[in-house]
Design goal:
The complex is a heterodimer of chains A (353) and B (844).
Chain A lengths: L1 H16 L4 H12 L4 H8 L7 H38 L18 H15 L3 E2 L5 E3 H4 L11 H4 L5 E2 L9 E3 L5 H13 L7 E10 L11 E11 L4 H16 L5 E8 L2 E10 L16 E10 L1 H6 L8 E7 L1 H9 L6 H4 L2 H4 L3
Parallel strand pairs in A: 1-5
Antiparallel strand pairs in A: 2-4, 5-6, 6-10, 7-8, 8-9, 9-10
Chain B lengths: L1 E3 H4 L10 H10 L4 E8 L12 E5 L5 E11 L7 E6 L4 E6 L12 E11 L4 E3 L8 E3 L3 E3 L2 E3 L2 E2 L2 H4 L21 H5 L1 E6 L11 H12 L21 E5 L7 E8 L8 H9 L7 H13 L3 E5 H7 L6 E7 L5 E4 L3 E4 L5 E5 L2 E5 L3 E2 L12 E7 L2 H10 L5 H6 L6 H18 L2 E2 L4 E3 L8 E5 H8 L5 H9 L4 E5 L3 E5 L10 H16 L20 H15 L3 E2 L5 E2 L1 H5 L15 E2 L9 E2 L3 H12 L5 E9 L2 E3 L2 E4 L2 E9 L16 H14 L5 E4 L5 E11 L2 E9 L1 H4 L8 E7 H7 L15 E10 L4 H12 L3 E10 L8 E10 L8 H19 L2 E2 L3
Parallel strand pairs in B: 2-3, 14-17, 29-33
Antiparallel strand pairs in B: 1-13, 2-13, 4-5, 4-7, 5-6, 7-12, 8-9, 10-11, 15-23, 15-24, 15-25, 16-23, 17-20, 18-19, 20-21, 21-22, 26-28, 27-28, 30-32, 33-36, 34-35, 36-40, 37-38, 38-39, 39-40, 41-43, 41-44, 42-43
The chains are: A alpha+beta (353), B alpha+beta (844).
The structure holds zinc ion (ZN).
């Protein structure tokens, strides 16, 4: 009988070795360890054995059953692994095929940069104050120390509104800069406490307008972000320190700044802040027009007349203001040579941001 | 303003400074040098100087002053001559076609040699015959049988000016053999003059700045000259009718002038400064103007003599023009004057337009012998208006319209007489007649060290401040030890008094001390109370949602035309235009009003991009402008968006799906309002811009937030696209005003939901949202979701019927629901639907 077991074992293991797939494995299982397999039949023959033969046979057949079941499991695992490997090998994609297009919305580049500028200013304590586009001549010019016929008006070609009223004092304009917002903010804050107006630290973003032909280099509208700081101890040194800090956050922690004298009617002293060209590091390139410097913003100490117009006593308060162009920054950063792209809204331009 | 450096050197020693150093010093101090044009002086050694530079440096060995002793005919060419030339070392025969040598041809040895600019072989000069700017190296050549290896140069060839009429003939005292670079080598700075720098629109002003900024001494110009003959006192009378328009008028007389061309060096400087030399006396007026900043006007004295009556004195009157008064100006144009224009007249009538342009009759001519010279001060606003009105920009009106201090009238006149006497052989009459009815107040400012610290943040001792200010000719005196009394110099009109004056002085101090020497500091002032800007934050939130929904933001021009906006109306409905904010001046008719329609802006951009992409989804947020009588216009913000074309883009394994339609834009709108936590309703609407059957208004508690739908097919054609356009025009201000301050978040149940579908058969015209809201209401709080997933029509259902199938989810936060709970909810819904909507449960 034990010989028989041995024979069954040999034969079962031999056939198992040639099984290569799940279907044949199942066939093998039914034939070799299934209920009607020769091995299982042997169990029923146990009764016909003598008492002495039984323990050895019982041991033998149990060992055989355990062996074949284990071998079966091993084989099954092996086949499964092999089949997985085969299927993985056959499912190899050409990963260089393009992905399916996803619809993506984007902010306009000006909005993106405006947010960046305002975000940095917010970190520095500047809150956003928005003002109107159509302004009175008074707010756009006169309260900013630009009386009628002042030569500075020539620096800013102005769109006037046809109000049907030619009265000088009723004149309306499209704001030529965000600066009228300075006076609006000052008046709003100082009216809350005229004797002791609160300090101010605001950013004034907005669209401004200049009467110019539309060319690659000039536009009728452009965004400006202006900053205004007022307090009782603000100095030109603070202006330099604050704006250099802004430049480092905006253009890189190592960027160098340079302040040179300039003129704005509503600030005195006035300055232009240049940053060392971040393209060439100051050596001179096409972006900085070989100068090594990029003109980034105009700034200055708020003119005493403007402080007074805003309800802040110039003998007690001082402050500084600055203004910059988000589109100009984008043009420098991305080497955009045509300013018309911004309001042209060609999708081929917008999608690159 | 173009400034030859050689001229600056008349007034300040600039030795040791490279040209780019000078440019940098000026630029940092507020006199921005926009470009530098070299004509002879050494070019910057390194490239990183920071300026726009043009021109050439002259080779000191190859470009020399030389003399021509004879001009001989060319054997084979009538239009060429051969010059016997000596360059200080060697003799040369130089071939040239310069027309200004022809008159010397064949005269043999000239009685007086001609001093010329000589270029030896291999010198580099400009090509005088080329319109383009082109350099060439002089090479040996045979021209009509004569060998030529050098040349005599025109100004154009040396890069001095555009002049190529003839070669340069220097003044007689030109030193033969001297390198040209040493004799007339120059560089011209183009300086931007800001309004606050009007006082520096002249050579002396810039030289004064340079002297102060470099700690050098200013060399004052010479205002003195010999006089002879009868005094001018008593010969002329000045009568100023409006001193506020003409605060000062000064006259001088020079007799027996001989009209010639100016010396070469004068002509060269004038051309370098951008002026055309005319004659010695006219050039003297221009030269003195550019030098000192005072425009001057020369009258032919004998013409004025003739005009007056035999017994009268010459009387100069200044007054405004009478209505319709005419004057023929020196450009031979008869001009009709406005009553605001100021005239210089004599008793017979107008002589010149004050400060702008002279009259033809009394103008200097080749026959002029005696000159009455005017130095006057005019009101800058009036001059600006007049120059603009007659479109007569000039060097004189440029200066007068920015303000010239009346003190300069006499200085300018004296300097001009000085040059006239030098260049014309004329004799200046003793006596300068000066009418000065309105002298400006000389500003006096008191500053303390505290003022300096308060404004600039640094300690500049008052003694140092005094020194700095005096370098710009401020008159400073201590009052005690703590206060400096600062008196503005006579030529300055930009220094105020009181607190404004202090700011003006601080600017001067900062410039002189150097902006770069003021240390950076951080604000010590307290941070103001931090308030948010909820309105802008909400706008940003809406933008972010629109972007998240896959739309591209655009920003368009806010100027448009009514015609462009009318494209959003069918032809039959265009008629009366709404009121617009109109521009009084505009760059083009299609940009003459401020927009009223945000959707029009978006549609214009859609149209522009139809050809670029098969699928577009764009939005814009911005103001529209609504006029308000007697006040500034309203500027409410709007949100408009539009979608058109394929819903998906083509990929390599899939074709694009169908086009965007009404329900795509409704999906965007639903998502937008869901994200904003606004519970809006949609009501069928009629709007002229939209398809009458595919248009909805958005309603929030009875007030409208906007309208959307498919663009009316008739006007979609106005935008030359192929696919239908769906669009929305929303009132952002109303949306933002309605935003809830907060919203609760529902707990998530731990227990599984029961899911089931029901289909209700209703009449065809039953709006789906009524069915849905009834289901939600009758389902109670255990009904957590009801999603319409099918709309079905069939013969079996019958005509005029439709089946709406909903996927329902029942769920409780307190426990697992059983079949009976579900049946209860379902029965409630069905019963209500049957009763209130006449619906029937569709048996499955
Ligand atoms: Zn660069």
């Amino acid at each position: 009988m034990l010989d028989k077991l041995e024979k069954i074992e040999k034969e079962a293991l031999k056939t198992l070795a040639s099984v290569k797939d799940k279907a044949n494995l199942e066939k093998w299982r039914l034939a070799k360890i299934g209920r009607h397999s020769p091995m299982m039949n042997m169990f029923s023959q146990m009764a016909s054995l003598s008492k002495e033969e039984r323990p050895a046979f019982g041991q033998g057949i149990n060992r055989l059953k355990a062996l074949l079941e284990k071998e079966f499991e091993d084989r099954r695992a092996h086949i499964k692994q092999a089949e997985l490997e085969e299927s993985l090998a056959s499912e190899k994609l050409d990963i260089s095929l393009p992905g399916r297009p996803v619809k993506m919305g984007r902010l306009h580049p000006s909005t993106q940069n405006l947010r960046r500028v305002l975000g940095i200013l917010a970190e520095m304590g500047f809150q956003v104050y928005t003002a109107r586009d159509v302004e009175s001549d008074e707010y756009n010019f006169q309260l900013l120390n630009i009386p009628p016929h002042h030569p500075a008006r020539e620096m800013q070609d102005t769109f006037y509104i046809d109000t049907g009223n030619n009265d000088e004092s009723e004149k309306q304009v499209l704001r030529t800069h965000t600066s009228p917002g300075q006076v609006r903010a000052m008046r709003e804050f100082s009216s809350q406490n005229p004797d002791n107006p609160p300090p101010i630290r605001i950013a004034l973003p907005g669209m401004c307008y200049r009467f110019e032909q539309i060319t690659a280099r000039s536009e009728v509208q452009f965004n400006q972000v202006e900053g205004l700081v007022l307090g009782q101890t603000i100095t030109f040194g603070d202006l330099k320190g604050t704006l250099s800090e802004f430049a480092r956050r905006m253009f890189g922690s190592h960027v160098k700044t340079r302040f040179r004298s300039d003129h704005f009617p509503f600030t005195e002293p006035s300055a232009e802040m240049d940053i060392e060209c971040y393209v060439c590091g100051g050596k001179g390139c096409s972006v900085c027009k070989k100068s090594g410097w990029l003109e980034i913003l105009g700034c200055g100490m708020v003119h005493p007349s403007v402080l007074a117009n805003g309800g802040y006593d110039p003998a007690r308060y001082s402050g500084f203001a600055f203004g910059m162009g988000p589109e100009r920054q984008l043009m420098l950063r991305h080497k955009i040579s045509d300013i018309r792209y911004f309001w042209g809204n060609d999708i081929r331009f917008l999608e690159q941001f | 303003m173009k400034l030859p450096v050689s001229w600056l050197k008349d007034f300040v020693d600039l030795s040791g400074l490279e040209i780019v150093d000078i440019a940098r010093i000026l630029t940092m101090a507020g006199l921005e040098v926009e470009d530098i044009s070299f004509a002879g002086l050494p070019l910057p050694k390194k490239d990183d100087h920071g300026f726009k530079v043009s021109g050439i440096e002259w080779d000191r060995d190859k470009l020399l002053v030389a003399e021509v002793s004879a001009v001989n005919p060319h054997p084979n060419a009538d239009r060429l001559v051969l010059c016997d030339l000596f360059d200080g070392k060697e003799k040369h025969v130089v071939l040239t076609g310069a027309p200004n040598l022809f008159k010397y041809k064949g005269q043999g040895k000239l009685p007086k040699t001609l001093k010329v600019a000589f270029a030896k072989e291999s010198a580099v000069v400009y090509n005088g015959h080329s319109d383009a700017i082109e350099l060439l190296k002089i090479k040996k050549a045979v021209i009509r049988g004569v060998e030529s290896s050098s040349m005599v140069c025109s100004e154009k060839e040396l890069g001095i000016s555009k002049d190529h009429e003839g070669i340069i003939i220097f003044d007689d005292d030109a030193p033969v053999g001297m390198p040209l670079a040493d004799y007339i080598g120059d560089a011209v700075l183009d300086v931007k003059i800001n309004p606050n720098m009007a006082r520096n629109a002249n050579v002396l002003g810039v030289a004064r700045e340079l002297a102060a900024l470099t700690g050098r001494k200013l060399i004052k110009p010479n205002y003195n000259f010999d006089t002879s003959g009868a005094s001018l006192y008593g010969m002329v009378k000045i009568d100023i009718s409006q001193p506020e328009l003409n605060p000062r008028f000064v006259l001088g007389l020079i007799r027996d002038v001989k009209i010639y061309p100016s010396p070469y060096w004068v002509q060269r400087r004038l051309r370098a400064a951008g002026m055309r030399p005319i004659s010695n006396v006219v050039d003297a007026t221009n030269y003195a103007m550019i030098e000192i900043g005072q425009p001057l006007h020369a009258f032919d004295y004998d013409v004025l003599e003739k005009r007056k009556g035999p017994q009268d004195k010459i009387t100069i009157l200044t007054r405004t023009a009478s209505q319709g008064e005419k004057l023929v100006t020196l450009d031979n144009v008869e001009r009709t004057l406005a009553p605001s224009n100021v005239l210089v007249c004599d008793t017979k009538g107008a002589l010149s337009m004050a400060g702008i342009m002279g009259g033809l009759e009394s103008e200097i001519s080749g026959k002029t012998r005696n000159i009455l010279l005017e130095g006057a001060a005019w009101n800058f606003i009036n001059i600006r208006r007049t120059a603009n009105q007659h479109n007569l920009p000039s060097e004189a009106s440029f200066r007068f319209s920015r303000g010239v201090h009346p003190a300069l009238a006499e200085e300018g006149l004296r300097r001009c007489l000085y040059w006239m006497s030098q260049w014309s052989g004329g004799k200046v009459a003793p006596g300068i007649v000066d009418e000065y009815p309105l002298a400006p107040k000389q500003s006096l400012v008191k500053i303390s060290q505290k003022d300096i610290k308060r404004s600039l943040g640094i300690e500049i001792p008052l003694g140092k401040a005094k020194e700095l200010l005096e370098s710009l000719e401020f008159d400073c005196a201590f009052e005690g030890t703590e206060t400096l009394l600062v008196k503005a110099p006579l030529f300055r009109m930009d220094i105020g008094e009181g607190i404004v004056g202090i700011a003006d002085i601080m600017e001067e101090l900062a410039r002189l001390y150097g902006f770069e020497n003021i240390p950076e500091s951080l604000m010590a002032d307290p941070l103001p109370p931090q308030r948010g800007n909820p309105s802008l934050e909400a706008e940003n939130r809406v933008k972010d949602i629109m972007v998240a929904l896959g739309l591209q933001e655009i920003i368009s021009h806010r100027m448009t035309s009514p015609e462009i906006e009318q494209k959003l109306l069918p032809a039959g409905l265009r008629g009366e235009l709404p009121e617009y904010v109109k521009l009084a001046n505009f760059i083009a008719p299609e940009k003459r009003v401020m927009r009223r329609s945000m959707l029009s802006s978006v549609m214009n951009v859609m149209e522009l991009n139809f050809r670029q992409k098969e699928s577009l989804a764009l939005f814009e947020i911005g103001s529209v402008y609504i006029p308000k009588a007697g006040a500034l216009p309203l500027e409410p913000r709007r949100l408009a968006f539009a979608m058109s074309g394929k819903r998906t883009e083509a990929a390599w394994d899939s074709k694009p799906e169908s086009n965007y339609d009404f329900f795509d834009i409704k999906g965007v709108i639903e998502a937008l309002f869901a994200a904003l936590h606004l519970n809006v309703k949609y009501v069928p609407s009629v709007h002229p811009s939209f398809h009458p059957g595919k248009c909805a208004a958005i309603d929030l508690d009875g007030s409208g937030l906007g309208v959307f739908g498919e663009l009316h097919p008739e006007l979609a054609e106005h935008y030359s696209g192929n696919a239908p356009v769906v669009a929305a025009d929303l009132d952002l201000e109303a949306i933002l005003a309605a935003l809830p301050s907060g919203y609760p978040i529902n707990a998530i149940s731990e227990f599984p939901p029961i899911l089931e579908d029901i289909a209700l058969v209703v009449d065809e015209d039953m709006p789906a949202d009524r069915v849905e809201s009834l289901i939600k209401k009758s389902g109670g709080e255990k009904l957590v979701a009801a999603r319409l997933f099918d709309v079905f029509r069939s013969e079996q259902l019958g005509k005029g019927k439709k089946s709406l199938a909903y996927a329902l989810a029942y769920q409780s936060p307190d426990g697992t629901l059983n079949d009976k709970d579900a049946a209860d909810i379902r029965n409630r819904i069905v019963a209500k639907a049957e009763k209130e909507l006449g619906a029937k449960l569709r048996s499955s």
